[in-house]
Structures are given as structure tokens and as C-alpha cells.
Amino acid sequence: MAGRYDPLTRTTVRGGRTAVPAGSPARQPGAGVGPGSGARAREWTAEGGLDLGLTLGPLRRGPGDPTFRTTPDGSVWRTSRTPEGPATLRVALRPGTGTAVAEAWGPGAEWMLDGLPALLGSGDDPAAFVPRHRLVHASRRRRPGLRLTRTGLVLESLIPTVLEQKVTADEAYRAWRRLVSWHGEPAPGPENGPPGLYVVPDARTWALIPSWDWHKAGVDIKRSATIVRCARVAHRLEEAAAMELPQAAARLEAVPGIGPWTSAETLQRSNGAPDAVTTGDLHLPGIIGYALAGNRDADDAEMLELLAPYAGQRHRAARLVLLAGHAPPRRAPRMRKTDIGRL
Q1: Which of 16-20, 99-103, 136-140 has the lowest mean pLDDT?
Q2: In angstroms, how far is the first alpha carbon of the chain from the final one?
Q3: Full-model pTM
Q4: What is the pLDDT of residue 341?
Q5: DSSP assignment of 50-83
Q6: 3-state secondary structure of 296
Q7: What is the structure's pLDDT at 343?
Q8: What sign for the dihedral angle of Cα 273, 274, 280, 281?
């Protein structure tokens, strides 16, 4: 019944909604991939409930993301290149509880497990949010398990965000899939884990990707040059994960090609920043304006005015609006899809 009244649309996907199958009580987390597979394990219980699909959904870059998978037993699999090396994380909720059971593999397994509470929203305070609109209140009530994730890793969120600059989501997702599978490395983990998982390339590898591979992936020279510049100062950008929002945004935007849109979309994920509202977006102001004021032609200024009552929590408010799925009907064709890799 939930799917009938909460359909999975492009708008709700933009809000970070990812479908995670309900785990069967007969298949407890860890079955078949436990200590015998060399995994390290940890449990963590979220106060007030936890929805894995809503919390980790923003980290997924399209349905074929090679760094993110969901499996029928209710697990979310995610790979990262941590400061200690590549790692694969599997996390699931124990049926009937708010306890997350996690396993990790690879040199960065301990780092991933140490960061599990932050990844699942331990640093987030949903109680600080006070709805000011009927739609926002209803959206929040229907999603009590929404928590803002914090990965603590900047580059892994920054690069796919750069790929999303001024192209359709499908084009950006395709480029991400191609580049990670061509230049990343197979993810560590059990033999019976989901196939096709890869760990993102390290900064040096991103900087050395040849021009023809960028082209074959469908990435123009402007975006590829921005990613190369970011990779060359990756150690300085990673420091932004420990900064307050204004300082972190300034650090990212010091790199040519990184503006407020890209920094906000990155810091929402790497820092779990609840007030990192996205400006400069083609669709978001119209969605917010239409949902909260009936104005589909709203610009950034009007969007920020509508979100002003949520100061300190504007990103959460925007996500709840997106998750409500109350988007204006289309009145023009979709942006034309292209693939320069075919040229």
C-alpha cells in the first residue's frame, strides 16, 4: 500500500528516495557473508527510527551505480576509497528494530565501521526541524526515518556532482558508470556479494585519465578539466569535511569550475550539512515555488525566501518537498539527451 500512495518518481528520486527491499525475518543480516568471509562487523541503533533508503539514497548515482547496490534481503552495499584504502560496506536493519547491522571488507573496513553512525545520521538532529507548511509537515510525518547522512569524504561526492553539471541526470549517471568501471578497481568483499561493485579511482588516477576516455564517457572538456583540478588538490578539499558550512563551501569554490550549486550538492553528502540549500539549479526553485506557493516560475531568490523560516535546516526542508513529489506538470519537452562519446 505504501507504494500506491508514495510513488517513486523523478522528483522523489531527486529527494534521495531509494527503494530498499524489506528484509525477510528468515534471512537475518549477515547470513552467508558473516565472519567466515573475513568481514569486520558492527551494530548501531538509531534513536527514533531509521530508513536506509531515505538516509543512504542521496549517495546513489543512478540505478546502475557501480559503487552502490541494494539486494533482496534488505541490504545496502556501498563502496568507498577511505583514507586507509578501499572498502566495501554492507548494512541492513534487523527486522522489527531500528538496529543497523553492518559488515565491511578491505583495508578501509575499520574506517568505514568507525564512521557508520555518522553515515546513518548520528550527527543529525531531526528534532531541530519545525515544519512551517502543511505539505512539509505531511511529508515529514510520512518519513520518520529520514536522517541526513555524512560520509566524511569530499572527493567521492564532488566528482559525480561535477559530472552532473548542465547535463541530464541520465548522461551524468552514464559517465559515472563508465569512468568508475574503467578506472576504478573491483571492490573487496565476499564471493557471493552483489556482482559489478567497484571502488572509485584515487585522486592520482582521476588526474591521469586520458582525454579520449573522458570523451568516450561523454564528458566534455570543461567538466573533465574541473575534475582534474579537484584531483590535484584533493588533500586540501578533503579537509573541508571537518569545516563549518561557510568555510567548507569557500574551500571547494576556490577551485575554478566549482560554484555554489556543486559545493552545496557535495557538502550535503560529505558533511551532512542540513542548511546546504542548492542554488543555481534548473528545476529546484520551480518545484519549491510550486509546492509551497503555487508559483512554478520561482527563481532562486523566491525559493530562498520560501525556505527562510527553515534557516539552519533548509536542505532538509527542500528534501521533504522533493519527497512529497508535488512537482509542476511539464509544459516543455525534456532536455535532449546527448552522448559525445559516439562522435
Answers
A1: 16-20
A2: 46
A3: 0.92
A4: 73
A5: --HHHHHGGG--STT-TTEEEETTTEEEEEEEET
A6: coil
A7: 65
A8: positive
As a whole number of angstroms, the distance between CA 203 and CA 216 comes to 20
Three-class SS of residue 95?
A: coil
Ramachandran angles phi, psi of 68, nearest 5°? -150, 130
Closest to 263 in 3D by CA, of 87, 275, 336, 70: 275
Q: Is 236 helix (H, G, I), strand (E, B) or coil?
A: helix
Higher per-residue pLDDT: 342 or 283? 283
User: What is the distance between the alpha carbons of residues 294 and 338, in angstroms, rounded to a whole number?
Assistant: 32
Region of residue 54 (phi > 0: left; psi between -120 and 50: alpha; otherwise: beta): alpha
The Cα–Cα gap between 245 and 257 comes to 19
Q: CA-CA distance, 208 to 189, in Å (whole number)?
A: 27
- Spatial separation of the C-alpha atoms in residues 300 and 308, rounded to whole Å: 12
Residue 333 is classified by DSSP as P
Q: Which three cell numbers stand for residue 313?
A: 535546516
Phi-psi region of 163 (alpha: psi -120 to 50; beta: other; left: phi over 0): alpha
> What are the cell numbers at 216?
568516450
Q: Hey, what's the cell of 1? A: 500500500
Torsional class of 189: left (φ above 0), alpha (ψ -120 to 50), beta (otherwise)? left
Angle between helices 284-293 and 300-307 (to 10 degrees): 50
